[in-house]
Specification:
The chain is α/β, with parallel strands linked by helices and 465 residues long. It is built from 17 helices and 16 strands. It folds into three domains: 2-210, 3-Layer(aba) Sandwich (Rossmann fold), CATH 3.40.50.300; 226-417, Nucleotidyltransferase, domain 5 (2-Layer Sandwich), CATH 3.30.420.280; 430-465, no CATH class. It has helices spanning 12-26, 39-53, 95-98, 116-123, 147-155, 186-191, 195-200, 205-210, 226-229, 279-289, 316-322, 334-344, 353-358, 379-387, 406-417, 433-437, 447-452, and strands spanning 2-5, 31-36, 59-62, 67-73, 79-88, 105-109, 135-139, 230-231, 241-249, 252-260, 266-274, 296-301, 328-329, 347-349, 368-370, 372-375. β12, α11 and β13 form a beta-alpha-beta unit. The termini are far apart.
């Protein structure tokens, strides 16, 4: 069962602390994990408050391991130790640290600071061969990198279901929700009567004050929306220019397939994501997911693919090229690339006759359509675009954390920053035109004269009058 509590000032952290202690006292020997994205907040919001609550004669704290041990007597009078482990998780860099850990209760504070990948990774630690209850609790406010997945699961209650992979289905009974706002925390308001006014002055006051999940504060690509930039798949004309772009890392490989219409509008029609792929596997994945009709013009790749390896002296780009997946080095200007990407999410005039027909004809089709569109089967990519935040130090750039959602954004950026030409309708050759070149008499000239201009004359070489 998963529990949710939201809106700033609702007493979430206070409730999480008491909940962890209650489980330790109720179930001697239980293991509880309290986790936040960053250690300073973990220390100030949980470790120090809990150490003030729990009597020192009942518990001991190991500062180097960030673990509180509470010693109790079980129902047989035997001394047993309950534990509260304090942890922080900064994305994929922390995954190995938590791999294989086992906890009975996990409390994720400020869950919208975590990506869905991080949430799923930590949820795998909720296990143990014992009779203790297994619970995952989340607390958070609207906004942040995790806004969309938290909203989907707990507010919209839109759950994934895949008949082909039932083990990946999400059970609605596993997710429950509790709403709390500042007015519910009467003790805090008595001690700080100006708190509500302070919240109202914040930039995203409605989200924080009222728990408004329809507001996505801090998103870099705030002009992206599913309604505007996502469409159902359709048959792509054979003559549309097609491209690929990808970002490669051992932690994640993301590849996108693109088609460009006659307006220069770019359609992301296929994506592939997989972690822990070595270079040969990544190459094979690109080949397997590229269909015969995909006549790829260019494949854009990150510049670090051209770094030489010490052992072989070869580059990763060499391995792609020799495997018949030729790649071109993409421009790696982050600020410019992200600005171009953001600009392309806005509408441009719609003139392409095929797209107009596909959207219901001239009477029903919009007058404009974004320059960057996504098929709805590319959700893994466009959801990361919607989720990524602006960099706190450089608002013109995207945040680099959590790292696991940056790969998809980078793959799209590599495509957008490289100027692609709009597709031109192929010109049909006039019947018999080529044959006429071989006629003995074309406008009174034979083929040789027609193609070369005839014999060299004095006037041609500038000799004579």
């Amino acid at each position: 069962m998963l529990w949710r509590c939201l809106a700033k000032g609702g007493g979430k952290s206070h409730a999480a602390q008491r909940l962890a202690i209650w489980y330790c006292l109720k179930y001697p020997g239980i293991h509880v994990l309290i986790i936040r994205a960053h250690y300073p907040e973990l220390l100030a919001n949980h470790i120090e408050p809990i150490l003030r609550i729990v009597p020192p004669e009942l518990a001991s704290y190991n500062g180097s391991e960030h673990r509180l041990t509470i010693t109790l007597d079980d129902d047989k009078g035997k001394k047993v130790k309950s534990q509260i482990q304090f942890g922080h998780f900064d994305g994929v860099n922390s995954e190995n640290e938590y791999q294989g850990q086992s906890h009975d209760i996990i409390i994720m504070d400020e869950a919208t600071q975590f990506s869905e990948r991080s949430f799923r990774h930590l949820a795998a630690c909720l296990r143990g061969d014992n009779d203790f209850p297994k619970r995952f609790y989340l607390t958070c406010n609207p906004g942040g990198v995790g806004h969309k997945w938290v909203k989907r699961l707990f507010i919209e209650r839109k759950f994934k279901s895949d008949p082909k992979h039932p083990d990946k289905n999400e059970n609605p009974d596993d997710y429950s929700f509790i709403f709390a706002k500042a007015e519910d925390n009467t003790i805090m308001l008595e001690r700080n009567p100006g708190y509500l006014s302070d919240i109202s002055l914040m930039a995203n006051s409605d989200a924080m004050r009222y728990g408004d999940w329809d507001i996505l504060a801090g998103s870099y690509f705030s002009n992206f929306s599913v309604a505007q930039n996502v469409t159902k798949p359709f048959r792509i004309p054979e003559f549309w220019n097609r491209y690929r772009s990808f970002d490669y890392g051992l932690d994640m490989f993301v590849c996108c397939w693109w088609a460009v219409d006659e307006d220069g509008r770019c359609w992301c029609y296929r994506t592939f994501e997989r972690d822990n792929l070595n270079i040969p596997d990544a190459v094979n994945a690109v080949k397997q997911h590229t269909l015969p009709e995909d006549k790829i013009v260019v494949t854009y790749a990150p510049p670090d693919m051209w770094n030489r390896q010490r052992e072989t002296g070869k580059t990763t780009a060499d391995m792609f090229n020799t495997a018949n997946v030729p790649i071109v080095k993409a421009d790696n200007n982050r600020v410019q690339g992200h600005l171009i990407l953001r600009t392309m999410l806005d509408p441009i005039p719609l003139h392409d006759e095929y797209v107009i027909k596909m959207l219901g004809g001239a009477e029903n089709a919009p007058k404009a359509l974004p320059a960057l569109m996504f098929f709805d089967n590319t959700e893994d990519v466009y959801e990361d675009i919607a989720s990524i935040q602006a960099d706190e130090k450089n608002p013109d750039d995207c945040a680099k954390d959590p790292h696991d959602i940056t790969h998809a954004v980078d793959a799209v950026r590599y495509f957008c920053i490289n100027r692609t030409l709009k597709t031109e309708q192929p010109v049909e050759e006039e019947e018999g035109l080529l044959d006429s070149w071989y006629d003995d008499d074309v406008e009174g000239q034979d083929y040789q004269t027609y193609m070369t201009g005839g014999e060299i004359t004095a006037s041609y070489i500038g000799v004579g009058a």
